[in-house]
Amino acid sequence: MRNTGRWPVWVIGGLWFAVGALTVAHNGPFFDEATQITAGLRLFEGHGLSDGYLIWFGGSLFWPLLAGIGYRIGGLTGTRLMALLLASMAFGGTVRASANLFGRKTALWTALVLAANGPLMALARLGVYDVLALGCIGIATWAITELEKGNRRYLLIAALGLVGATVAKYPIVLMALPLCALLVLLRRQRAVLDLGILGFLSGALLIAFFVPFRQQLAEAPGWQAINRPDFGVTSRMIAYASLYWILMPALLAIAGWRLARERRSTAALLTASLAIWPLFHLITRDPVSLNKTIVFGTMLAAPLGGLTLARLWSRSRYRAAAPLIVLALMALGVVQWQQLDRAWPDARPTARYLVEHVQPGDLLLIDESWPYILYLYDAGRIDSPWDVYDVYRVSHDQSPVGLCEHDWFVNVRGSYAWPEFVSEAIRECALHKQVYTETSWVTGLGTDLRFHTYPVEAIVLRLDDQLERDAR
Questions:
Q1: 460 phi and psi, to 5 degrees?
Q2: Burial (Cβ within 10 Å: 0-12, 13-18, ≥19) of residue 151
Q3: What is the pTM of this model?
């Protein structure tokens, strides 16, 4: 883009960033967010490998390290602002790639399409490793489109982007398929050599990462194959949610494909990229992170949405349609990002109570453990995350004492709710007294394929010394 055409894009990007920065406190820590921040804090203290995160994480410790730095600087807000900066890399990389592929006018409209995308905004303000992967993919996409100008130095940038995305979150390696195909379409006769260089650089970087951690990484596939919760989500729900998140981007991309006369093959590839993650989740029957991974496809297809709007704007007969479509995208985007922002209960009030009352050495049972572990550990109320026993650890008999001997019992009744045998055991021993309760309102897709807002109650029980003495 020439300098004269950059300032509107900067304004759009700046406003998008400002909205994200002003709304980072939209909810308490998401389960994965709290897990990864805590892993970062533990990493600073030398426990990154000994805690075994690489076995059950779907990515490396690079994002937890950055998340921990952000948390040390500014708490949860600091981590989310760091995530927003990485998402801005993806935003900028996609806009620059759009300019390279379809021109600077398309880039302007691409910026508007991205700014109006609800799932992107929701992900951009969430401190999870998906955001690091997203930023790396944005940079890799831009670097590959720069290769058309003939400078192979961008192959190194593309390799760094692809490897960075892969080690941030392992399944994102699937994005190598459309990006390598894009390289072939842009470079044609030179593509074989370029792919060879890209493969060599990427392979060397991946080997450098995996070899030092090969022992834990070798255990990861087996652990993740066994421990894959479905949260009661059916394939029908996955299909519906996928359609809901990508319908508007897909319609714009299809229109852009029809309008892209000079780059029809490239446009077809970008449109097809929208299907990668819906198919992945349907084939694996894994609903986890669907609303996050789907952003990768919509980001790659965004230049086609920009092309559609740019062509409408350039024709006086259809000019009014372009801003109306943008307004419709914004309205839908706001609804979607509000739904995603409220997809989990707010742990902050209950965590605050626990931090004020839990004493070092207390034994805790908490089902939605990590959002509470984060605050308890940071405040020094527990010595390590493993002082809290959750559904997984109780189900695998990792608690050193009986259920009735724990000082605290927290029942959030969320995604990782206590199995009935645990709740029944606590009721039967009758040694705990309810001391706190808090209600959050959560929005989620139901089995009837409609979004519902419903209450999630967190109940805190504390071991009563008098009841315990009486029982003895």
A1: -115, 125
A2: exposed
A3: 0.92
